[in-house]
Amino acid sequence: MKIVIMRHGEAETFAQTDADRALTKFGRSASRDVAQLCKQEGIAEFDKVLVSPYKRAQQTWQELEGIFSAKDLQLCEDITPYGDSETVVEYLNAIIELEQLDSVLLVSHLPLVGYLTADLVKDIAPPMFPTSGMVCIDYDTNQQRGELLWHLKP
Predict the structure, then answer these.
(1) pTM above 0.90, yes or no
(2) Pairwise CA distance, residues 86 & 131, whole Å
(3) In the chain, N or C terminus with fewer CB closer than 10 Å?
(4) Domain spans in the chain, listed from the N-terminal domain onward
(5) CATH of 2-152, one of 3.30.365.10, 3.40.50.1240, 2.60.40.1570, 1.10.443.10
(6) Bridge pairing between strands 45-46 and 48-51
(7) Which residues does UniProt call coiled coil (predicted)?
(8) Model pLDDT for residues 112-154, shown as the tens digit of each residue
């Protein structure tokens, strides 16, 4: 199964709260560009998409939904910048098994995206994620271990 993890696009520096920071024009276009690269890698449809409730992640998904299709979209409070990667990995394993998923996309934030990647792949340091950065992991649910297939950057 494929797990794709994406960091939101470039966002404004300031807003009323961190959760309210909106994407910049560059953040929108870079997110679309990376999604197109992902599509060129052969991934354009997801069984489930999990998106952080933060504005910049929501806006990133809005840019992607014209490129990707999703059978199920879910707002996920656990994938904010302060989310716990072990909890998210446990949740992923549960929904993958329960719902028989073949592909999942997460649109999230630093530092969580790096920690998630390292927890899913094992034996790697958390990779650096620029804004709009994306990784694809070929994940074996039986072994609960993945292999990093590629890392796309704008």
Answers:
(1) yes
(2) 23
(3) N
(4) 2-152
(5) 3.40.50.1240
(6) unpaired
(7) none
(8) 999 999 999 999 999 999 999 999 999 999 999 999 999 999 9
In sign, the C-alpha dihedral spanning 50, 143, 137, 109 is positive
Residue with tokens 């990647």: 117
Q: What is the pLDDT of residues 45-98, one digit of tens each?
A: 999 999 999 999 999 999 999 999 999 999 999 999 999 999 999 999 999 999
Contact 103, 1 (CB under 8 A): yes
Give residue 124's identity as a one-letter amino acid code.
I
Q: What radius of gyration do the chain's Cα atoms show? A: 14
Whose tokens are 């807003």? That residue is 15
